Amino acid sequence: MNFWNDPLKVAADWLTGILTGWGMNDVAAHVLVAFLGVLVLITILMVIDIFLVWIERKVVSRFQDRIGPNRVGPFGLIQPFADIIKLMIKEDTTPDGADKVVYNIAPMLSMMSVLILWAVVPLAPVMLGVDLNIGVLFIIAAGSIGTLSIIMAGWSSNNKFSVIGAFRCVAVMVSFEIPMLATLLIPTIFSGSMGTNAIIQSQDIWFVLLSPLAALIFLIAAIAELGRAPFDLAEGESELVSGYNIEYSGMKFGMFYAGELLHAFTFGGFWSIMFFGGYRFFGLEQVSPFLAIAIILFKALVGYWIIMWVKYTVMRIRIDQMLAFNWKFLTPVAFVLVMVTALMNALLRGAGSWLYVTGMILSNIIIAWVSLEIVRSVSKKERERVEGLKAMEVAHH
Amino acid sequence: MNEWLYVGLFFIVGLIIPVGAIGVAWILGPKKPNPIKQSTYECGIEPIGEGWVQFKAQYYIFALVFLVFDVETVFLFPWAVKLGQLGLFAVVEGIIFILILIAGLVYTWRKGMLEWV
Amino acid sequence: MTAEQIIFLIVGAVTLIAGLMVVTVRNLVHAALWLVAALFGVAIVYTLLNAGFIAVVQVVVYIGAIAILFIFAVMLTRRQAADTGASVNKNWWAGALMAAATFAGLAFLLQGWSGFSKTASAIPLGFDAVNQLGDALTSPAGYVLPFEVASVLLLAALVGAVYLAFNKK
C-alpha cells in the first residue's frame, strides 16, 4: 500500500505495528490509534477555525468597504493568534447568581456539538471518518445538543437579555429543523441511503441539478440553524446586546464564537456533501486523497462564503416574521417538494437519465413558481387590506 | 468492532479540546473578582429586578408543533431509504403520511396558533 | 469481561444515577438537565446494541424536542423553579412496597428465561437495520397500517394540544 494512495491506513498500520511491537494488546492499540487520529483531525480543525476568524474579519471588512486586519503579520494573518492570546489571558468572570456548573458546561457542549459533526464528514474516498448508515440524522442529533447548550447558557447566566436570547434562539433552531429534515429526505431519496459517503458516491449528477429548490431550502434552514443573519435574533446586538452569550468572557466566549464560525464552515461542507458532490469533482478525487480533501475543503469554503455573503447583505428580521416564514412558507413548500420528488422518482426512474433530470428540474421550477405566486397574491391582498384600513382612518379624521 | 466506538471518540476528544482551552485560559487569566465586576450586565445600568423575564407562552406552542413534526419526519427516513426499490404503492403511502401531517399544520394555522401575538 | 460490557456497566450506572437525580433535585431546570443525561445514556446503550437509527432518533426526538419542551414548560414559571414541599408524602412506604413487589414479581417470572444465559447471535455482515426498517414500514405484508395510524395518532396529539392551548387563552 502506497502512502500517497491511502495515507490514513498506512499511518494507522504503521502506528499500530509500533504499539503492538511494544507488547500492547491488539484491540487497545487499535483504539489508541483511532483516538490519536481523531485528536489530529480535531486539532487540524481548530487550526482551520483560527484562520476562519481571519477570513471572516477580512470578508466582512471587504463587504463593508474597509480593509480589515492588516497590521499583525502579512495581510494581518497573525491577527487571530493575537486574538487567542487576548482571550487566554483575559479574566474569566462569572456573574452574580449564575448557576456555576451549568454556566461552565454550556460553552464546552456548544463547541463539542460542532466538533462531533466531523465524525460523519467523508474527506476523501479512503478517509470516511465514521461511515454511519444514518449520517444524515446524526447531523440533526448534533444540532439538538447545540440547541441544548444555548438554552443552558441563556438560563444559567442570570441575565434578562441572555434569557430572551436563548428563548428566541431555541425557537428559531427548532422551527427550522423541520424544513432541514424535509430537505435532507431528498438526497436520501436520490441515493437510497442516509450515509454521507453513500450520498456522495451516488452523485454522478450533482443533486443540486436534480433539486435546486431543496439545496436552497437547506441553505436557508442551515443559516437559521447557525443563528446567523438574517436569523441572528438570538444575538440581536441592537436590542439584546449579545443575547445568550452576553455574560461570557475570555475563552468561554471564545468557545461560542469559534464554535459558530466552525459550525458555519461545517454546514458549508454539508451543503456540498448533500448537493454538490462532496469530495467529487470530475474524477479528480481518484487521483490523490489529498486532492479530494482539498476539493471538499474548497467547496466547504465556498459554502461558508455564501453564508457570509447572506449575513452581511440581508438585515435581521423580526421573530414573528421569521416564524411565519418558516411555518407558513418554508415547511409546506419543503413537504410538497418531498412528495413531488418521491412521485417523480417513482415515475421517471425507468426513463433515461436525461428525462429524469429534466423532469426533476421542471417539477422544482414549477413548485418554486407556484409557491411564489401564492405568496405574491396573498401579500398583495394583505397590502390592500392594510392600505384600506389606513384610508378608512384618514377618512375618519 | 462497533463503529459507534469511533463516534464516542469524537465525543470524548470534542470535550477534551474545549475543556483544555478553557482550563489553560483559567490558569493564565487573572482572578480579581469584585462585586461590580460580577454584577449582572445591563448596559451599564444597575440591574433592575431579578435576572429573569416572564417566558412567553407562545414559544411553547411552537415547540409543541415542532415536536409532532419532528417525530413524523424522522419516521419518513426509513421510507425514503427504501423508496428507490419500491413501487408506486410505497410512494402513495408516504404521500398519505405527509398529507395527514400537513392536515395538522393546516389545522394549527386555521386556529391561529401560528400567529405571533 | 469485554470492553463493551465495561462501557455498558459505566453507562448504565450513570443513567441510573441521572434518573435518580431527576426525581430528587429541587431545581426543576436541573431536573430537566439530568433527564437529558439519562436519555443520552439510553442512547449510548442503543449504540452498544448496534441500533444506530434508534439511538439517533432517541437524541433527535427526546433530547432535541421533548427535553426542550420540558425546559420550556419549566420556564413558564419562575427562574429558581425549586420545589419547596416535601419530596415524599406520607404514603411513601406503600409506593416503595409496590415497587419492591413489582421487581420481585418480574424477577420471579424472568428467572427461568433463557435469554439471560444465551449469547446474542452475531449480526450478519452487511446487515442494514435502516433498510430492514424501511421494508417493514412500507411493504403491505409489514407494518403499513401502523405506520399510517402513527401519523393519525400524532395528528390527534397536535389537534389536542392546540385545542387545549387555544381554550386557555
What can you tell me about this protein's structure?
- The complex is a heterotrimer of chains A (397), B (117) and C (169).
- With 397 residues, chain A is an all-alpha fold.
- Chain A contains 14 helices and no strands.
- Chain B has a single domain (4-110), classed as NADH:ubiquinone/plastoquinone oxidoreductase, chain 3 (Methane Monooxygenase Hydroxylase, Chain G, domain 1, Up-down Bundle).
- Chain B has helices at residues 4-28, 35-38, 57-82, 88-110.
- Chain C is an all-alpha fold and 169 residues long.
- Chain C contains six helices and no strands.
- Chain C has helices spanning 3-24, 28-48, 52-75, 92-110, 129-138, 144-168.
- Chain C is globular.
- Classes of the chains: A mainly alpha (397), B mainly alpha (117), C mainly alpha (169).
Quote the average pLDDT of chain A: 84
Strand coverage percent of chain C = under 5%
Class by SSE composition of chain C: mainly alpha
Gyration radius of chain A, in Å: 24 Å
What is the residue-mean pLDDT of chain C, rounded to a whole number? 82
CATH level 3 topology of the largest domain in chain C: Four Helix Bundle (Hemerythrin (Met), subunit A)
Structure summary, number of beta strands of chain C: 0
CATH superfamily of the largest domain in chain C: NADH-ubiquinone/plastoquinone oxidoreductase chain 6, subunit NuoJ
Q: How many domains comprise the coordinates of chain A?
A: 2
